Automatic annotation (TrEMBL):
GO terms for molecular function: metal ion binding; metallopeptidase activity. Residues 75-197 form the Peptidase M16 N-terminal domain. The keyword Nucleotide-binding does not apply. This is Peptidase M16. Pfam families: Peptidase_M16, Peptidase_M16_C. It comes from the Bacteria. Belongs to the peptidase M16 family. Keywords: Hydrolase, Metalloprotease, Protease, Signal, Zinc. Residues 1-27 form the signal peptide. One of its GO terms (biological process) is proteolysis.
């Protein structure tokens, strides 16, 4: 049962914050649709194809159909966001279907269908979708997995004509791509570039892990990306044979969800896919294989294949899997009740493991997760990050916690705690069902097909859950726990930075050793009530309450100076976001505070408040929809949370108590220190990691506050030093609160008065603030060279043209976004389509609104080391061309129309306006700037773009960075920098 309000196994809520308006297409077309031609509306008593052999109640909003050629489809009307239709075409073919000489063909074919097809000329797919308002890479995309290939289109501003054109184009791509020798030869270098960019250390670890865990199965020998040899050997005959064998109508499902009449969508699917021919008998899928224990394995503890992976720049990690054969299931209510008990058992174990890690155990992190993976296994995976070199102790300690869960049932209190968490998740799904984005619904249907299960409405999920609660007994959880850790074979890998530390035999022996059940991690699960917590002080008075004149947003000021922006709206039922912005952000730190900046990002929230430590903070929010995210920005700090109306008052208390009653527990700081130390060396393993480690500091003239601290700096940090740095920061600077969403205004005001209104007046920001430094690298055509210790075939290059910052130039910053998109299209065409040198070159525009400088237009790409000079030259040529000649009207339209659609869709969400108005109580110009967003981003001229290019894209004003492998630092002809580290 795939319930579309959240991932069915992880319960992770991913809901779009978008409003609903009447359908943009249905009113125009409903009288012109021939209903009799629509199979989805046939009044047959037949069960829809997804629900056959299932007693899960059908979600009636989905309309199902099946064509005579065997192709299936499903459509659904949805107005989130307005005017958009999301189309997915799932082909039941992935890397596991490939023959030995075809490795990588499923993914290669995913690329080729975009290159040329029946209705699309050579290289016309991207510009065609752009003219329809779809952004390449986000609105138009595709992905290949071991078992399927899915093509994605989110079509904005949909009309009857654009919808028909889209189905027509997509049908040509699936049924009749032009698989010529020329196209194969053109696309293979792009796929090899993608393989290189996604390769390196992480890919080696993933491949080695896959080979061990799936030994003897097809998954062990089939990488989705393929091999260099098989890709280079690809030709039109082989690719055409693969397409003919697997791109058949009976292996296809077309999904369409959005702001259009379902009957219209179904009729168009029939019109363009009904003549997909069935040629010859279908070839059955190959046998993916079963996990099998080696001969002589202990049936009680069937440890099989193990492997040790040595990567000097990565932290230690132990993974093991209790593996069972994958088999299709009948997706019934009883089956799903069992899945719920499985999820409950895992949640209890994971909470116990987290408690052990927080308490200073032998591991930094450990988690269990049951998953049915790629129709190859039903496995329970255990992942462990040891704190020290003693990986055996960490493995033993985790296994001991699991052994206890298998030996004794959980308490009623532990079960009740997890049931309360599940309940609030499922209830939120019902409350927020109107906010479900069509793209999310379409993707959930794809996942349901991947896992061979049905899909259910949020109401059905909640109903089944509530009916099932009496089944969640300690004994039932115990029995399911035992089944989760019983399987045909146990396989494991150890990742270590130290060669010779262990071998496969040592790992196998460690897994086979008996452990003593450890019940010390069982938690006190008695609830804590907010009603038992002391007030933060006397409620504060409201000093001012005025309308901003923007939408329905009001600004409230409390007597102590705290300000709030309130936008109550019933358009987002059950959805409420709270942001608390305060202080000076990075400006408040000294250069020597680098370690405490990183540790604060990890540990400030966990260090507790008042009488509540980290565990108590978890317990007090049990069964509540509450959060506590933290972010350090250039000019402010920010707490944020998604909550719901019933929990708003307590969410505000939780945030305000962090200022009123800070607590400084040492354990979260010590754990954060361990995490920072373990992570540091991994930055050197790839060009991306080096940029993440050094890039922000480099962009800011070597400002140490933006540098990842070294292990020695982290080691020198102390809990006492942590408090000395962070306590003053909690006490100074104005506080701004944003409340946007579904809430009662009077109740929210009362809660604000009792919480933030009760705080003492804030200390002003100190006069010694140090804004970030920017653009201090000398402009030069010679790049600064950094080095990495990863794959010698990987490099990266960056060119930055400094621009500006501040609200006074906000309109120009938005015009620069148009220029960046023009640059992006040209860079993609040159580096990917023509040269095959980079898979996904990017151009980005930044403009800090709260700082007076620091913006830049940056072009970047991941490359082979030898291609770095080519990239730098190409970027300069594009910049020079934009200076010399204005873009054509068509080229400009292919940028501004997707931008128009992005903004139009985003602006149906309160989250969009929250982001735009962060800091507006201190800088009212942000309120006025809201009104000009759409014209600023979409109205321009070729001449205006040329003028911007002449102002900023001057070669002598840019600076550049190359990140090369240590073995070849001179390839880019640059000068080395001391920014790299170990």
């Amino acid at each position: 049962m795939r319930f579309h309000s959240r991932a069915s196994r992880s319960l992770a809520s991913v809901l779009a914050l978008l409003l609903i308006v009447p359908s943009a297409v249905s009113a125009q077309t409903q009288n012109r649709v021939n209903r009799s031609a629509v199979a989805a509306d046939a009044a047959a008593a037949e069960v829809p194809w997804l629900y056959r052999d299932s007693d899960v109640p059908q979600d009636k909003e989905w309309k199902f159909g099946e064509l005579a050629n065997g192709m299936r489809y499903v459509v659904r009307q949805n107005g989130v966001p307005p005017g958009q239709v999301s189309i997915r075409i799932r082909m039941d073919v992935g890397s596991l279907h490939e023959r030995d000489h075809e490795q990588g063909y499923a993914h290669l074919l995913e690329h080729l269908v975009f290159r040329q097809s029946k209705y699309l000329g050579q290289g016309q797919a991207i510009p065609t979708w752009q003219r329809l308002g779809a952004t390449f890479g986000s609105d138009t995309n595709a992905e290949t997995s071991p078992i399927s290939t899915t093509f994605k289109l989110d079509l904005p501003n949909v009309t009857a004509a654009s919808l028909e054109e889209s189905f027509k184009l997509l049908s040509g791509m699936m049924i009749a791509p032009v698989l010529s020798e020329r196209n194969v030869r053109a696309e293979v270098p792009i796929v090899l570039a993608e393989k290189r960019e996604r390769g390196g250390t992480a890919a080696r670890v993933a491949e080695a892990t896959q080979k061990t865990l799936f030994a003897g199965q097809r998954m062990a020998i089939r990488s989705v990306i393929g091999t260099d040899a098989t890709l280079k050997a690809a030709n039109q005959a082989r690719v055409r044979a693969f397409h003919a064998r697997w791109y058949r109508p009976e292996r296809a499902v077309v999904i369409a969800v959005g702001d259009a009449d379902p009957a219209l969508m179904a009729s168009l699917i029939e019109k363009y896919f009904a003549d997909w021919p069935v040629t010859g008998p279908a070839e059955p899928a190959p046998d993916f294989g079963d996990p099998v224990a080696p001969a002589g394995a202990d049936p009680a503890n069937p440890v099989g294949e193990t492997g040790v992976i040595v990567e000097p720049d990565l932290p230690r990690g132990v993974n093991y899997a209790v593996m069972r054969p994958w088999r299709p299931v009948k997706d019934t209510i009883v089956y799903n009740q069992g899945i719920m008990i499985d999820s409950l058992a895992q949640a209890i174990i994971n909470r116990r493991l987290e408690a052990r890690a927080r308490g200073g155990g032998s591991f930094l992190f450990a988690q269990v997760n049951q998953e049915k993976l790629n129709r190859s296994t039903d496995a329970t995976f255990v992942s462990i990050t040891p704190l020290t070199e003693d990986w055996k102790q960490a493995l033993t300690d985790v296994r001991a916690v699991i052994a206890d869960a298998m030996a004794e049932p959980p308490t009623e209190e532990e079960i009740a705690r997890e049931v309360a968490e599940f309940s609030v998740a499922f209830e939120s799904g019902v409350e927020q069902r109107r906010l479900l984005a069509g793209s999310k619904l379409a993707d959930d249907m794809v996942t349901a097909l991947d896992i061979n299960e049905t899909i259910a409405s949020p109401e059905t999920v909640l109903s089944i859950f509530r009916q099932s609660v009496p089944l969640f007994t300690p004994q039932a959880v115990l029995e399911h726990t035992r089944k989760l850790f019983t399987g045909a074979v146990i396989r494991s890998t150890l990742l270590t930075p130290k060669a010779g530390e262990a071998d496969a035999a040592a790992l196998k022996l460690a897994l086979a050793e008996p452990v003593v059940a450890d019940g010390k991690a069982r938690l006190d699960s008695k609830p804590i009530s907010f009603a038992d917590l002391p007030p933060l002080g006397d409620p504060g008075a409201i000093k001012a309450d005025v309308a901003t004149g923007v939408l329905g947003i009001d600004q409230v000021e409390l007597a102590n100076g705290v300000k709030a922006l309130l936008w109550p709206s019933t358009d987002e039922p059950g959805r409420l976001t709270v942001k608390v912005r305060w202080g000076a952000g990075f400006r408040a730190f000294r250069p020597e505070d680098a370690a405490y900046i990183t540790l604060g990002d990890m540990a400030l929230v966990g260090s507790g408040q008042g009488s509540l430590g980290q565990e108590q903070l978890d317990r007090i929010s049990t069964g509540r929809k509450m959060g506590f995210d933290f972010e350090i920005k250039d000019s402010a700090f920010q707490f944020s949370a998604d909550t719901r109306p019933a929990d708003l008052a307590d969410q505000l208390y939780l945030f305000a108590a962090r200022f009123a009653q800070p607590r400084w527990d040492a354990a979260p700081v010590l754990r954060a220190k361990a995490a920072a130390r373990l992570q540091y060396e991994s930055y050197a393993a790839s060009p991306q990691g080096v940029w993440q480690r050094d890039g922000r500091s480099l962009q800011r003239g070597g400002d140490a506050r933006f540098r990842v601290p070294t292990p020695a700096e982290v080691e020198a940090a102390t809990p006492e030093g942590f408090r000395q740095v962070w306590q003053p920061l909690l006490e100074q600077g104005p506080i701004e609160i944003q409340l946007f969403g579904d809430f009662d205004r009077n109740e929210a005001l009362a809660a604000l008065q009792k919480t933030f209104g009760a705080l003492p007046k804030r200390a002003p920001l100190p006069s010694t603030l140090q804004p970030p430094r920017f653009a201090e690298l000398p402009a030069s055509t010679t790049p600064v060279v950094l080095t990495h210790r990863g794959d010698p075939t990987q490099a990266a290059a960056f060119v930055t043209w400094p621009t500006g910052g501040g609200m006074a130039g906000i309109t120009e910053s938005r015009k620069l976004e148009i220029l960046a998109n023009l640059f992006q299209n040209r860079l993609m065409l040159a580096m990917r389509e023509k040269l095959g040198a980079a898979y996904a070159p990017q151009v980005s525009n930044s403009w800090p609104e709260d700082l007076e400088n620091g913006g830049g237009l940056m072009a970047l790409a991941q490359l082979q080391p030898a291609a770095v000079p080519m990239f730098l030259q190409t970027a300069d040529e594009i910049a020079a061309n934009l200076i010399a000649r204005p873009p054509s009207a068509d080229e400009l339209e292919r940028v501004t129309e997707p931008l128009r659609q992005q903004i139009t869709r985003a602006s149906t969400s309160s989250a969009f306006f929250m982001y735009q108005l962060e800091g507006a109580t201190e800088d009212p110009r942000k309120l006025g700037a809201i009104r000009s967003i759409l014209p600023d981003y979409t109205r321009t001229t070729p001449a205006e773009m040329q003028a911007l290019a002449r102002k900023y894209l001057v070669r002598g004003k840019s600076w550049r960075v190359a990140i090369l492998p240590e073995s070849a630092p001179a390839t880019a002809g640059g000068r080395s920098s001391g920014a790299e580290g170990r």
